[in-house]
Amino acid sequence: MATLAVATTMLLVAASSAGARDRPPSIDAAAAIVVDADSGAVLYEREADDRRAIASTTKLMTALLTLEQAEPDELIEAADYAALPVESTLGLEPGEQMSVEDLLAALLLESANDAAVTLAEGISGSREEFVEQMNARARELRLADTSYANPIGLDDARNYSTARDLASLAARLMENEQFAEIVGWQSAELETGARRRVIENRNRLVADGFVDGVKTGFTREAGNVLVGSAEEKGIRVISVVMGEPTEAGRDADTVALLRYGLSRFRKVEVIERGETLASAPIRFHEGDRVDLIAARSFSLTAPRGAQGEPEVLVDPIQPLEGPLPTDVRVGAARVFVDGDRRGNVALQTAEPVPGPTLSTRAGLYLQRRIVLIVVAITVVVGILVLVRSRTRRSRRPEDRRK
After folding, report:
1. Residue 283 pLDDT
2. Mean pLDDT over the full length of the chain
């Protein structure tokens, strides 16, 4: 009986744990979201479209513009920035020169405001112009509920975003290898500048090896903000918590949301590179066909338990006329899930496509010559008919006068 009781208790605990993993975590954030970085699928959200102050997560857009417009080893002269005592800074001195890579590390790890201003002025010439570029880029990325007033994240009624927009921006940034590497560092040694500096990542979660980014933030208006990232078995999820009362709660809620997000997804391999997906007829080679293979692999993430299976549809393929070499792209396969298109994969020839044979080419040449002769005869006959018709018309009045 004792053995049975223990076994029953273990089953109940296991069932309870499994049920807990299936339920969204209880969090304290005023707004939050968890998304699949690849597809953008939302697994959890709370007030995800509320416009809120975002503190230093503003620097994500500062980083994006820097990555897009500056070279890592480019040296930028430090801006003359008078920071308030409560601000996080690197202690840059006016005229000091530092590389873009080191400034990015200071921006993303130490959250240094003087590094943000230095990058803004170095790239655009002025903070005002840089802010205009930040807002223009936000519009291009369709971050409809995002606005920037400065490159730092200081409280301003015009500086805001949403959990959904922050997740979208972070997912894009994590595709950049340089960015993803920097935000995963626990610390960094800055080798350029007037003196050697060692900085620490304010996102303490990267130390445990589970979280690999992205950015913290805090102001009195914004509260504690954290954009997080984690990857497991080829699946990356992005989390955002906003308006957290404490740093400890911010960190705990981020880990809980990321683990929940990863538990809800599975990776589905849909197409393998080199897989034959279709074939095409070859002109002038009756009955012959050439295989068309996938130019790349394609996988997607799907919620666990989802019923819809991926469907691969190939665009209509016209007969191919050679000669064509191997790997010529001639069409595409489209991947759908429940009627929604999830991606495209180019198709290419698996082997060379032969051209017409000598006899076929001779026949084609003769055929074209015959067509030209027929066209020429038709034109000549048409001209003769037209001339004869006009001649008859000119003679009729003379006949009547007689």
Report:
1. 85
2. 88
Name the residue with tokens 């009756």: 286
Spot the catalytic one: 99, 111, 124, 229: 111
Tell me, yes or no, if 56 is annotated catalytic: yes
Catalytic residue among 56, 124, 168, 239: 56
State how far the Cα of 64 lies from the Cα of 107, in Å rounded to an integer.
12
Q: Domain spanning 269-349: which CATH class is it, in words?
A: mainly beta
Q: pTM of the predicted model, to two decimals?
A: 0.73
| pLDDT digit string, tens, across residues 112-137 | 999 999 999 999 999 999 999 999 99
Is 59 one of the catalytic residues? Answer: yes
Domain ranges in the chain with CATH number 3.40.710.10:
25-263
Whether residue 39 lies in the annotated active site? no
**Cα→Cα distances 191→33, 179, 197, 200, Å:** 37, 18, 7, 15
Architecture of domain 25-263: 3-Layer(aba) Sandwich (3.40)
When computed from its CA atoms, the radius of gyration of the chain, rounded to whole angstroms, is 33
Place of tokens 């393929």: 317
Which of 59, 161, 168, 215 is catalytic? The answer is 59
For residues 328 and 179, what is the distance between their CA atoms, to the nearest angstrom? 34
